[in-house]
Amino acid sequence: MLIAVDGPVAAGKGAIAGALARRFKLPHLNTGLHYRAVARQVLLNGGNVDDEDDAFDACDFPIELLSEPHLISELIADLASHVAVFPAVRQALFEREWAFAHRRGGAVLEGRDIGTVIAPDADLKFYVTAEPAIRIRHRFEALMEAEYPIELREVAAELTARDKRDRERAQAPLRAASDAIVLDTSQLMRRDAVTAAIDAAEG
Ligand code: CDP
Predict the structure, then answer these.
(1) Could you tell me the CATH number of the domain that includes residue 121?
(2) Residue 162: CB within 6 Å of ligand 1?
(3) Ligand 1 pocket, residue 32 CB under 6 Å
(4) Which site in 9, 85, 160, 193 is 20 to 30 Å from 169, CA atoms measured?
């Protein structure tokens, strides 16, 4: 079974994708980490995230970078959305992500373009969303928990700018696949959102 979980910042994709992977014993890939790693590698290379060549050169980041603690920062998330506008970057990551998605036995992939670009053939697609104020609060609380120093208004500004960049880019803009199940988690506790996704998957 191949499952796609897409949606904007901090709507609950990670909890849902993780729970689906455990429930169906499938490998799980958070593709956002790839974009974050490219952004981080651009910084390590002394490059510019708004330069397509610098961003493309960073696509061969070492695999160990994916577990680097810096990747959780909102600065890196913001820079990730800059490198994500470039077709050359998306193509380089497409190859890795397509291979993960189409391995024998299935997978759960989470991101922005899984149901639309990486795996339009997925057996099941979710588009997880929530009202911006709720997503801002979720992200702020998650960063507090990780002891990442940031203020609520900075999270609000970053999330709003990133949502806009992700929705307005020319290639693979964030949107729900036409055959996705839309799950609005605004009024749901995390546990209930996860249960709703598993119920939908079990049909
Ligand atoms: O965790 P959060 O939703 O804040 O972000 P993420 O999933 O780590 O993704 C960081 C950024 O990478 C997003 O804002 C997108 O610009 C980009 N991204 C993308 O373009 N396509 C994906 N499949 C995943 C992430």
Answers:
(1) 3.40.50.300
(2) yes
(3) yes
(4) 193
With a CB cutoff of 8 Å and minimum separation 6, the contacts of 37 are 61, 65, 66, 68, 71
Output the CA 80–ligand 1 centroid distance in Å. Answer: 7
Return d(Cα 54, Cα 162) in angstroms, integer: 20
ipTM, two decimals? 0.99
Q: Which residue's alpha carbon is nearest to atom 8 within ligand 1?
A: 32
Provide the strand spans (E) within the chain.
2-6, 28-30, 107-111, 124-129, 181-184
- Residue span of the structural domain in which 95 resides: 2-202
Which pTM value belongs to this model?
A: 0.97
* Minimum CA distance residue for ligand 1 atom 3: 9
What is the Å distance from ligand 1's center to 171 Cα?
A: 14
Number of independent structural domains in the chain: 1
